[in-house]
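Appendix B: complex inputs.
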Amino acid sequence: MWDYNDKVKDHFRNPRNVGYIKDADGVGLVGSMACGDALKLMFKLDGEQRIEDVKFQTFGCASAIASSSALTELIKGKSLDEAARVSNKEIAEYLGGLPEQKMHCSVLGRDALLAAIDNYRKKSRGEQPEEVQVASDVVCACFGVTRQEIERTVRENKLSTVEEVTNYTKAGGGCGGCVPQIEELLTEINASPPPVREAQPKAAKKRLTTIQKIQLIQETIDREIRPQLQKDGGDIELVDLDGDMVVVSMRGTCSHCKVASFTLKFVVENKLREFVSDSLRVVEASSAEAGDEA
Amino acid sequence: MNVYLDNNATTRVAPEVVEAMLPLLADLYGNPSSMHSFGGQVGTQVQRARDQLAALIGADPVEVVFTSGGSESDNMAIRGTLMSMDGRKRHIITTRVEHPAVRGVFQHLGKTGYRVTEIPVDSDGALDVDMLENAISSDTALVSVMWANNETGVIFPIERIARICKERGVVFHTDAVQAVGKLPIDLSRTPIDLLSLSGHKLHAPKGIGALFVRKGAKMVPLIIGGHQEGGRRAGTENAASIVGLGVAAELAASQIQTENREVRRLRDRLQQGILKSCKDAVLNGKHRLPNTLNVSFKYIEGESILLMLDEVGISASSGSACASGALEPSHVLRAMGVPFTAAHGSIRFSLSRYTTQAEIDYVLEKLPPIVDRLREISPFIDDESGKPVELTL
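Resulting structure:
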């Protein structure tokens, strides 16, 4: 039996904002056929850079369709930065809750939105837009779930067991070959940041002088970001801070891998926003000259 | 209108079965093993049920062991046989498309020192019997192959496989849960050692099943501590359900031919109707049970289809298991090489003797608009041309 509540059923039966925007500003497509979900999300901005219109198309189960519908309702009228902060938890809450095994559907919605925002930002910087979010560092090969996705989801939802990770991301639900790796990852994630997470972000939300900001960014990179990258053979360095624009250079394997740098930008940006300031934007040294985005 | 087309999951208990069971749930509560005649009359009814079931499958009544259902029968057959061999032989053979009750046992055994060979199927769902024959070695203890597949209805050549195993001196078990009552089975002419069946798939209640154990087959019981079922399965008999299974077996035996002709006609009507009215619908499996239809609707997802069917009163089933902790699309369809785009959108319709033509026509009226609606939402259909597109994910 489906334990969907009436709101989920309503958004499944009558999904809001289904369809297609011909001249969309940003288009994101995420998912995997192996996993049985795919979500295409597109938006159009108004004169004030707020989301004026948003449409989606979903291949997936009832809760994937309902989650997509809920997400589009939640982000209408928001700026891109505001929209990017809508978490999968908020999507689930908007729907009055989703069954545990279906949480991955709300995660999918968020990933599609982030991909669409990135697509828009790349376009506005004059780069070749990538419609598809290709992820690096795949942990679960069956469903194409990356280390970054698992890490973000574990942190946002305070997950502690492999079963929960499978429910939220599908990772480990196929052949099960990656279960030991997920276990390791869980131990690692849950061992590292909690004390910092509690204290640091709150303190950091105070107004900071530029020097303090730089110091905090440097600390966050050293503590939260670099160790991860170095493990995968890459590295990151803080080059400059211009207002809220953090200029970094990626070194090692990362700098040659376009796909990785895309995913990394989000990881780095999320971390810095979490620990330093919500308004920070991350650009790579090479593309910094292209100027301000959005 | 309520239309139940999920008979491979479970069936309606036949009214004749209910009627036969009621006295045993009320006045006839004696223990079949008791010495007094109050219990003895229940024992007589249990014996009669054993005769009825044996008649349906061409067995000797003493070869019938009542169990709690298909899963217990499968466990008992496979594990009980291997236990009787004391680990002298360490190789076991099965197929890639078994029901979890067999598949799970083999996976477990694979982790505890047995070498497991899984025989593949082709795109029609047919088994590579030559490969199975070649896989048998002097170390092979047991072969277990289902008679008919629960998801696609594909029938395997069990008589041929049984003969091969007999010639090579290997114990042969078949999970015949989907076949019993739908296909004629005569165990007096087919050298099968062990056969599992389940009551609730043939209009008896849930919680009752049986294992056919050929005379002379060695098997260590899983449940010990009582003399019941010839010492092969301890525990006071589930008398009411056993009597129900007996009546269900008798009904099936008397009606199997005529019933299957009608069920097949309705199934074919549904199949042709769907393939005609729904674009990109693909039939899964060839040489099938008369009651089963498994169709993939490309570019849309099974659970969404099921939920929309459910809202108009139609009960069917999906091979894709997104709803459960196991997130893989059906292992059966994947073994057949059905691409992901189609495997996730597979729906199984399974009919029974109670299915009517009006019900089939109702499904044929309701289903196509549901498929169209979901395709409108799907990113795999191009917005302007309405044609499927390849998405690189």
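Chain B has two domains: 3-7+256-377, 15-252.
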